[in-house]
Automatic annotation (TrEMBL):
Sequence intervals crossing the membrane: 47-72, 79-101, 121-144, 165-184, 204-224
Keyword vocabulary terms for this entry: Membrane, Transmembrane, Transmembrane helix
Entry protein name: Uncharacterized protein
Length: 244
């Protein structure tokens, strides 16, 4: 157990540091492109800066995945560590931004979350809620592992998790996907980028987001219930074999 606590603490520190680095980069970008305050429509970024930003986002995900693979002893633990690191990184990214520049003033302020493959936009509250859901997954799996309850993630669980995740992603990206859908096929990439930059998302689809969140929470309840039930069944079988 001591090793697990030490590993979790080091992962927390790593994710905390990544959150600060992420917020520091955003402080620099906003000083250049949004010297007063971040707001829509988006400012057209220099092409090289945009490509660098896209690659930085991809590198961030690879770093989180790599540290989880290195720290985890099995597939379930690696999955839990990845979710744990992602959640801590994302939550403290906003905490450090608020400490450094006083943004966001409220959790309902809109932000650009990712740029891959299209911009993700929504109130800050939404990604924070999603990060808390990730923490629920991570803690549940790690507690079950500690209690030696077999963590089994079946095909149905993965299917529901992917479905819920895609619905959540859709809630962030649907305004830009709709914009691209009504854009003529002959539109050049430069013109499309200008349209995306000039677009101002108005309303966040909380119903769609809540549906995805509900599915994700139901899945972790299924996993926990099944693992505890399986663990109790094995304990009773072992007890029966011993008394026999």
């Amino acid at each position: 157990m001591k090793t697990s606590i030490k590993t979790l603490f080091l992962l927390f520190v790593f994710s905390l540091a990544m959150g600060f680095l992420e917020s520091a980069v955003v402080v620099y970008l906003r000083e250049i492109y949004y010297p007063h305050v971040f707001s829509f429509p988006l400012v057209n970024m220099d092409y090289n800066v945009l490509i660098t930003e896209l690659l930085r986002e991809a590198a961030t995900l690879l770093m989180l995945l790599s540290i989880a693979i290195l720290a985890g002893r099995n597939r379930a633990e690696r999955f839990a560590f990845f979710l744990f690191c992602f959640a801590i990184w994302d939550i403290f990214y906003y905490v450090f931004l608020w400490m450094l520049i006083g943004w966001p003033a409220t959790l309902l302020e809109w932000d650009i979350l990712f740029l891959i493959p299209v911009p993700w936009a929504g109130p800050v509250l939404a990604p924070c809620l999603l990060s808390l859901t990730m923490l629920c997954y991570a803690v549940s799996i790690l507690v079950l592992q500690h209690r030696r309850c077999p963590v089994m993630i079946k095909f149905r669980d993965w299917s529901m998790m992917i479905t819920g995740s895609l619905i959540v992603v859709l809630s962030f990206t649907i305004p830009y996907l709709n914009l691209m859908a009504v854009t003529p096929d002959r539109t050049s990439s430069g013109e499309l980028m200008q349209k995306i930059s000039a677009f101002i998302p108005r309303n966040f689809n909380w119903l769609l987001f809540g549906t995805g969140e509900f599915i994700l929470l139901i899945v972790i309840l299924f996993i926990v219930r099944r693992c505890i039930k399986t663990g109790k069944s094995r304990f009773h079988n072992q007890t029966a074999d011993f008394t026999a």
